[in-house]
Design brief:
The protein is an alpha+beta fold. Helices cover 25% and strands 26% of the residues. It has a seven-stranded mixed beta sheet. A five-stranded mixed beta sheet has the order 17-26-25-24-18, with helices on both faces.
């Protein structure tokens, strides 16, 4: 992050004080606020005359607690009373926030807290110093004789006190300090404290508004009948019966916006279809059911999941040029050193996102501008895509930032905004709420990428792991023109490692996308192969892993990532201790391990299970996490627990099966989620919380639960299950070792 400047130009908001900071604060222009308005102090903070602190949430809140953590970081340095802090979701402003200086609007990759940690703390500290300077000026006392805490500034000697609300307007007219002093980690009182999520009271009482809650004067509703087969096209449609329904306004094809969307880093597909615009949702839905549509389903129409898996298996049999290697790239075939070899294939299937709030977007296209209301993880992509569609100048697309009921990576894509804006324009420049039904969400959506993992291990004459070969076939590559040149993120000390990555995107039957954890799910299955090697060597899985993690050893993966063996050992040992790894269990019960890095965060997971009469019960999951400095331990634990549940759902019931080109799961009765009565006890333990800064937390635990359970199943039954899902509590009859 480049943060050469901190406070930048701010706009006049609701008649409030306008500050323009230029040349790092050398020039200040101020406009007086209207009575009763809030005063802005920089880009993330407003203070009302009553003293309430309004934190401007410019990242996307989708249930992960990011807004609360951001408020903690800002208010730690500000010295605010936590009960007086409120959250505000402003309009997206690309000029103001979408830059290196202010961190951007984008939310994903488990990096938002990491990127905003210094930024928001500096924002709070800057505002604090300006408030203190305003109080000192009013009292005509030295600045260093005043302190800011508990929502006000106090002159220590005289005990005089002024609230933040009383000082905000005057503070905003003062020079912006070039340097601010941040608290030492040991002095922090709010960062590291397990506070309740700020939004919860407003969520449960309905005061928080999501995209589905948007209501505008004269607003119409729209549904789209999308082609059920990926890459299929609309051939013709007859809307005669649908148009006879009272309340139906317009019906038209969405062909002009259909097809591949080459958005930077977020390629996706908009399916061809027919839009129905009506007075309300139910009329639109009934009219859609009355449409008579003929589709050109294309070459995917007769294909299913099994056909695609055969293609993946065929590609897996052929080696490509390595995308990364350490030592000898062909060491697994070195007959002079190798005495035993092991091979295994693991499959992580497509997954549905299943956000609690289905996709939706409200758009209002006017003569020379457009307004968008939606929950988006990357609103700049929404703004750019709509701008290009409508051929509007930059700045003429207003995006209202709204929280969403789950994102999981799916809301990083702007397709719902493109559809809504197109429909609003074609319907006559009227406000339109475009909605997806749950069935639309399950059958016509983007899915998590498919991963087929091929592993080979070579053991030398001393029974040591001499070489590791890993080939990954996957259906998503972040829009890169070629495969990722880096190594697979593995910290184990193996003399020879080769990693091959091949995309099979052109063969997929549903469009792949990001899903909570993105590419780590398939890669984490390498932990099952590590267990296979340990079993071959008749070694304890924990001891074997520790033998491969040399103390003091760092592994360079790419310019942004170096894995620490010491940190990996620390979470592994902590999880083993808390899970009582050394304790023997009765027959039918067992434990399994998974150790995985996610960027700079390290996670170890131990699952304890019972298998009786072929029925699986996951009794307990113990997770140890090193994510650096904890901002909100309570929210962090929630994220770890939620990720485990989501990952175990994928293990037991996941997948997105396709028949005749169609995703066949239509709702939650088929696309099952783990129920509360199936959920194991989940114990979360953190280490490294006294570090100087935080690392990511949102996606780190989702990939580790499944491999830990698969390893436990082998320990309990002697069977290796190498393909997800495993069929729920009744273990499926898959091939075993």
């Amino acid at each position: 992050m480049k943060r050469r400047e901190f406070l930048r130009d701010s706009a006049l908001v609701g008649g409030g004080l306008t500050l323009c900071f230029r040349a790092a604060g050398a020039e200040i222009m101020a406009a007086r606020p209207a009575d009763g308005s809030a005063t802005e102090l920089g880009d993330f903070l407003r203070i009302t005359p009553s003293g309430d602190v309004l934190f401007l949430v410019v990242k996307h809140e989708m249930g992960q607690g990011l807004a609360t953590a951001g408020a903690q970081m800002l208010c730690e340095e500000l010295g605010a009373d936590w009960s007086r802090v409120k959250l505000e979701f402003p309009l997206a402003d690309m000029a103001r926030w979408e830059n290196d200086r202010n961190g951007g609007h984008g939310t994903g990759g488990s990096c938002s807290i990491t990127y905003q940690y210094d930024l928001l703390r500096k924002a709070g500290a800057t505002a604090r110093q300006m408030l203190v300077a305003a109080a000192a000026q009013r009292w005509n006392v030295p600045v260093d004789s005043c302190t800011a805490e508990n929502h006000g500034v106090t002159h220590v000697a005289s005990k005089r006190r002024l609230s933040f609300g009383e000082l905000a307007t005057a503070a905003a007219t003062l020079p912006v300090p070039a340097d601010v002093k941040l608290k030492d980690t040991k002095d922090q009182k709010l960062i590291g404290k397990p506070v309740h999520t700020k939004l919860i009271p407003d969520i449960v009482t309905g005061r928080v508004k999501y995209g589905l809650d948007v209501q505008l004067p004269g607003m119409l509703y729209a549904l789209i009948a999308r082609c059920p087969v990926y890459k299929g096209k609309l051939k013709s449609f007859d809307a005669t019966r649908a148009r006879k329904l009272k309340g139906v306004h317009k019906i038209f094809a969405t062909t002009p916006i259909a097809g591949p969307q080459h958005t930077p880093w977020m390629p996706h597909d908009i399916r061809d279809g027919v839009a129905v615009v009506a007075d309300n949702f139910w009329t639109a839905r009934k009219a859609r059911e009355l449409l008579e549509i003929e589709w050109d389903e294309g070459p995917n129409a007769g294909l299913g999941t099994e056909d695609f898996e055969v293609i993946a298996q065929e590609h897996a049999l052929h080696r490509t040029d390595p995308t990364g290697f350490i030592g000898d790239e062909n060491a697994v075939a070195d007959l002079g050193k190798v005495r035993r070899t092991l091979r295994a294939s693991y499959v992580y299937p497509h997954q549905l996102h299943s956000c609690m709030e289905p996709l939706n977007c409200t758009a209002f296209v006017k003569a020379d501008e457009c307004e968008i209301w939606c929950g988006s993880q990357v609103p700049n992509l929404v703004s750019n895509a709509v701008k290009d569609l409508l051929e509007l100048p930059a700045g003429k697309v207003k995006v209202h930032l709204m929280p969403s009921g789950g994102g999981f990576g799916r809301r990083a894509y702007p397709d719902m905004a493109v559809e809504a804006a197109f429909i609003s324009r074609e319907a006559g420049n009227v406000p339109v709420k475009m909605m997806w039904t749950r069935e639309d969400d399950q059958t016509c959506n983007l899915v998590h990428l498919f991963q087929h993992m091929e592993y080979q291990a070579a053991l030398d004459g001393q029974g040591k792991l001499y070489a590791w070969y890993e080939k990954e076939l996957r259906t998503y590559n972040w829009s890169q023109p070629s495969v990722d040149p880096s190594l697979s993120a593995i910290a184990y000390d193996i003399p020879n490692i080769r990693y091959d990555l091949e995309d099979i995107i052109t063969h997929e039957l549903a469009h792949s996308s990001a899903w909570r954890g993105v590419v780590v799910h398939g890669k984490a299955l390498s932990e099952c192969f590590i267990d296979e090697i340990a079993a071959e060597l008749e070694q304890d899985p924990l001891a074997f892993r520790l033998s491969l993690l040399k103390p003091g050893r760092d592994v360079y993966i790419d310019p942004n990532l170096t894995l620490s063996s010491d940190r990996m050992r620390r979470v592994l040992l902590l999880a083993a201790d808390k899970a009582n790894w050394a304790q023997k269990l009765e027959p039918g019960r067992a434990r399994g391990i998974c150790l995985s890095p996610y960027s700079n965060t390290c996670v170890a997971c131990i699952a304890e299970i019972t298998v009786q009469d072929g029925n699986l019960k996951i009794d307990r999951v113990t997770v140890a996490v090193d994510c650096g400095r904890l901002v909100n331990p309570s929210s962090a634990a929630n994220q770890i627990e939620g990720g485990i549940v989501w990952g175990l759902t994928g293990l037991l019931y996941g997948g997105a099966p396709i028949r005749n080109g169609r995703l066949v799961h239509t709702n939650f009765h088929e696309n099952k989620l783990m129920r509360m009565n199936e959920c194991p006890q989940i114990d979360v333990h953190f280490v490294g919380g006294d570090a100087e800064r935080p690392w990511g937390i949102g996606e780190v635990s989702t990939p580790v639960g499944a491999p830990a359970v698969l390893n436990a199943i082998f320990a309990a039954t002697g069977k290796r299950l190498r393909k997800l899902p495993i069929g729920g509590a009744k273990l499926a009859a898959q091939s075993g070792a």
